[in-house]
Specification:
Elements: E1 34-42, H1 47-50, E2 55-60, H2 73-76, E3 82-84, H3 86-98, E4 104-107, H4 113-126, E5 132-136, H5 142-145, E6 154-157, H6 164-171, H7 176-191, E7 195-196, E8 202-211, H8 217-231, E9 236-240, H9 261-273, E10 279-280
Parallel strand pairs: 2-4, 4-5, 5-6, 6-8, 8-9, 9-10
Antiparallel strand pairs: 1-2, 1-3, 7-8
C-alpha cells in the first residue's frame, strides 16, 4: 500500500505523478515546501461562510488540475507565491483568528496536505478554536482526505464536471468525476449534515459548488442528480454564475463568452424541479474580474 504522505514518491493526488518533491516539482508545480499567495479576510464566500466578519482565507499556490478557464491561474498555473514554513502557516491561522473572522479557509491546499495537517495540529495547540474550512477543486483521493478527519469542520468542494469528455478537454483529467464523487462522499462522512449557529454561520457540513460553463447545462444537471441521489438536502449547493472567459479559455471558441441568463435559469430551475432546497444562486453581475483577489502575498 502506498504511503500517501511520502513526498519522495508523491502519490498524494489522483495524478499519481510519483515525483520526488523534496528536490523537484510534481504535476502540481510545487515542491514539498508550502507555497502560498495570500492570507486575507474574504467577504465574497457564501453567506454562511463569510457572514458579517469574513472568512480567514489562505490561498495556496499550485494545483493538480489544469482548468483552462481558471480565474486564479496566476497562482494555480503560473505558481505565483512565496514559500513559508509549516510553523509560519500555523501562526497565520492564529493571526486570522485574531482578526475575528468566522473561520479559517484553506483554498486549494490538497497538494500540501501532510504539511497542512501538521500546521493545523500545531495551531490547535496554540489555541485555534474557530471552524476550519477546506476549499477544494474536488480532485482528491479519499486516502488523502482521511488525514483531515477531525481537523476540518466544513468542506467546500467543487464538482466541476460529470462528463469525462468535458473534464479531459477543459482540465486534462478524464477521471475527474470518478475521484470527485468519491471525495465528496468522504467529506460528508466526516462532517455529517449541516450545522449552523444562531446567526446562520456554518459550524459543520458541506457546500458543493458548481461553476456552470457555457454550453454545459446538461452536465450541470447530471451533477445535480448525483447530489440529490447521494446527499439530498443535507448539503448546500452553490450554483455559480460567475464564469468569465480568462486564461486559456479566451482562445477556445465555445468558452470565450459569458454564461447566458437562459442557461443559468435552466440549471436553477432543474435544481428546484428535482427537489433540492438548500442552495445559493448568484447575480449575473458576479461575472467580473474585480471579484478575483489580488495575490500580492499579504498576510504571509
Amino acid at each position: 500500500m502506498e504511503n500517501i504522505t511520502d513526498m519522495s514518491h508523491c502519490m498524494l493526488c489522483p495524478r499519481n505523478c510519483g515525483v520526488d518533491r523534496r528536490n523537484s516539482t510534481g504535476y502540481c508545480k510545487c515542491t514539498d515546501k508550502i507555497k502560498a499567495a495570500l492570507a486575507s479576510v474574504h467577504m465574497w464566500e457564501e453567506p454562511p461562510i463569510s457572514g458579517t466578519r469574513g472568512s480567514g482565507t489562505v490561498f495556496f499556490s499550485g494545483c493538480s488540475l489544469r482548468c483552462v478557464f481558471c480565474q486564479n491561474y496566476d497562482i494555480s498555473q503560473e505558481n505565483n507565491g512565496i514559500e513559508i514554513t509549516t510553523e509560519r502557516l500555523s501562526d497565520i491561522f492564529i493571526e486570522q483568528q485574531n482578526r475575528n473572522v468566522h473561520n479559517i479557509n484553506l483554498v486549494t491546499a490538497g497538494h500540501f496536505l501532510p504539511q497542512v495537517v501538521y500546521a493545523l495540529k500545531i495551531a490547535k495547540k496554540k489555541g485555534l478554536k474557530i471552524p476550519v474550512v477546506y476549499n477544494s477543486g474536488g480532485y482528491e483521493k479519499v486516502e488523502a482526505l482521511k488525514l483531515l478527519d477531525g481537523l476540518v469542520d466544513i468542506y467546500i468542494p467543487d464538482i466541476k464536471f460529470f462528463s469525462s469528455e468535458i473534464s479531459k478537454k477543459y482540465a486534462s483529467c478524464e477521471n475527474y468525476f470518478e475521484y470527485a464523487s468519491k471525495a465528496v462522499k468522504e467529506m460528508f462522512r466526516q462532517t455529517g449534515g449541516l450545522q449552523l449557529d444562531d446567526s446562520g454561520i456554518m459550524k459543520k457540513g458541506i457546500i458543493i459548488r458548481h461553476l456552470i460553463l457555457p454550453g454545459c447545462r446538461k452536465d450541470a444537471e447530471k451533477i445535480l442528480d448525483f447530489i440529490k441521489g447521494n446527499f439530498g438536502n443535507d448539503v448546500y449547493v452553490s450554483l455559480l454564475n460567475q464564469y468569465t472567459p480568462m486564461y486559456k479559455a479566451t482562445q477556445i471558441k465555445e468558452l470565450n463568452r459569458r454564461l447566458t441568463t437562459f442557461e443559468y435559469q435552466k440549471v436553477t430551475d432543474y435544481f428546484l424541479d428535482i427537489g433540492l432546497e438548500n442552495g445559493f444562486v448568484q447575480e449575473k453581475s458576479s461575472a467580473q474580474k474585480k471579484y478575483t483577489p489580488i495575490f500580492d502575498h499579504k498576510g504571509l
